[in-house]
Amino acid sequence: MDSKAAISIGARLRGHRQTTGLAPEEMAARLGISRAALYRAERGEIVKVETLGRIAGELGVSIDDLFGVGVEYYAEAADLFERMGELERHARRITGVFGPVSYLVTSGDYDRLLGEALAESGAGAKGVAVREALARRKAGFAAGRAELRSLICLPDLDRLLARGVHGRGDLAAEAQADRRRAARTEVERLARLFTAPPPRVEIRLIETAAPTASFEIVEHAAGEAHLVTSPFSLGERVNIALGIGSVSRAPEAVETHRRVVERLWAEGAAGAEAAAIVAALLARHPAA
User: Fold this and answer.
1) How far apart are CA 117 and CA 175, in angstroms?
2) Which helix (H) or strand (E) covers residue 250, if one does?
3) Which of 218, 208, 225 is CA-nearest to residue 268?
4) pLDDT tens digits, residue range 104-156?
5) Which of the residues in the chain have pLDDT under 70?
6) What DSSP character marks residue 274?
7) Do 91 and 219 meet the contact criterion of CB atoms below 8 Å apart?
C-alpha cells in the first residue's frame, strides 16, 4: 500500500470515529491498544488488515468503507467540514457548487457574520467546532496548491442581500439592517473577484437556481476524485444541525456530478459579464 492510500485510510478512520462520537481514549480501550497506536492508525500508519477489520467492526462500518470503496456519512457539520479540509489540502483541483458562495473565498468579515449567526442559532459548542473546522479548511487551502472553480447562483445572492446572514428569524430590525449591510459589502467584494480573482481561483455565475444539495468534486494528482455533498448551509439562513453529509469515491457518483457541473460551468457568466450582472442585482437592493 502506498503512503497516500494509507493516509487516506487513516483520515477516513478518524472521520468515522468522530462521527460515532467516540473519544480516542475510548476507542483505543475498546480495541485493547494504546492511544498512541490509535493516533498512528489515524495518520495512516496501519500495516495489518486484521487491525483495520477490528477497527471497522468497532465503528460499525465495513472495511470497504475504510478503503474508500463505500460512502462516508457525516451527521455533524464540523466533522464533514474537517473531512473536506483534509481532502482539499492535498487536492489538485476543487470544483464546488455551494450557496451563496464557496466558503474558501469568503472574507474575514464573513467569518465574523457567520460566528454571530451560529451563536444566535443556539449552536453552542457545535458552532465553535464548526468555526474551528472552517478556519482550518481556509488555512489549508491557502497553504496548498489546489485550483478552485466556484459556481455561484444568482438567486442565492439575491436572498443573501435581502436578509443577510442570520441564525434565527426574529432578529430586531436594527440587527437585520446591520446583517443586510454586511451582506452587501460581501457581495460587492465578490463582484470584484469576478474580474480580479485571487491566485488559483476562478468564479462563474449562473442565473438559475442552485442544485438542491451543495456539492464539490475534489480531484487529486493521481487521478483520484471525491464527491462531497452537504445539506449544511453557511449562507443566508445558517444550518449546521439538520442533514447528513457524505463523501464518496464511487466513479458513477463523481462522474454524474461532474457532468452537471461542467454543463453549468459552460453556461455560466465570467469576468466583466458576471460582475455586471451582480452590479445590477446590487442596484435592486439599495444600500441601507
Assistant:
1) 11
2) none
3) 208
4) 999 999 999 999 999 988 889 999 999 999 999 999 999 999 999 999 999 99
5) 1-5, 46-47, 68-70, 210-211, 288
6) H
7) yes
Instruction: Return the pLDDT at 39.
Output: 85
For residues 95 and 260, is the Cβ–Cβ distance under 8 A? no
Which grid cell is 185?
459589502
Q: In terms of CATH, what superfamily is 3-69? A: lambda repressor-like DNA-binding domains (1.10.260.40)
- pLDDT for res 4: 65
**AA letter at 60:** G
pLDDT at 1: 53
Separation between Cα atoms, residue 216 and residue 110, nearest integer Å: 20
CA atoms of 133 and 104, how far apart (whole Å): 12
CA dist 131 → 82, 110, 245 (Å): 10, 12, 17
Which of the listed CATH numbers 3.30.60, 3.30.870, 2.60.40, 3.40.1000 matches domain 72-283?
A: 3.30.870
For the entire predicted model, the pTM comes to 0.77
CA proximity to 245, closest of 228, 221, 263: 228
DSSP class of 103 = G
Residues 135 and 120: their CA atoms lie apart, in Å, by 20
Residue pointed to by grid coordinates 498512541? 36
